[in-house]
Design goal:
Shape: elongated
Number of strands: 0
Strand content: under 5%
Distance between the termini: 76 Å
């Protein structure tokens, strides 16, 4: 007899939402708790929402603080984050999907880009208008 396959790790979004709701916290409260624990005042409830909807997957820094604040073993969150990434659940939909796919809209520059040179290092022609 073949033993049953081990259970697949849960995806991160539903796991975070369940842990938050088990505490009776709003997304705003979860963000405030994370900010207080990490000493970083810039996390908003919008980012918590993106994590729960799987529009983004938190990196190691926030996974560590989520484990502390939600009292969940870090390994559980890390496995769920990996499962979410493997499933490709972080694909954006709507107007931001081109940027999420690594395609930059025409005329915009991203972090670390000045728009003044081409990849080859040559000068880009600029027009004045």
């Amino acid at each position: 007899m073949i033993p049953p396959a081990p259970p697949r790790p849960a995806q991160l979004g539903p796991l975070l939402a369940r842990c938050r709701l088990d505490r009776g916290w709003s997304q705003q409260r979860a963000a405030a708790e994370l900010c207080a624990a990490a000493g970083v005042p810039t996390l908003s409830r919008h980012e918590v929402s993106r994590w729960e909807r799987q529009r983004r997957v938190p990196g190691g820094f926030w996974l560590g603080w989520l484990a502390v604040v939600l009292d969940v073993p870090l390994v559980v969150l890390a496995e769920a984050a990996a499962a979410t990434r493997r499933a490709g659940s972080t694909r954006a939909t709507g107007p931001g999907r081109a940027a999420a796919a690594g395609v930059r809209p025409a005329g915009r520059t991203g972090p670390g880009r000045t728009g003044g040179t081409t990849r080859g290092g040559g000068a880009r022609a600029r027009t004045t208008g």
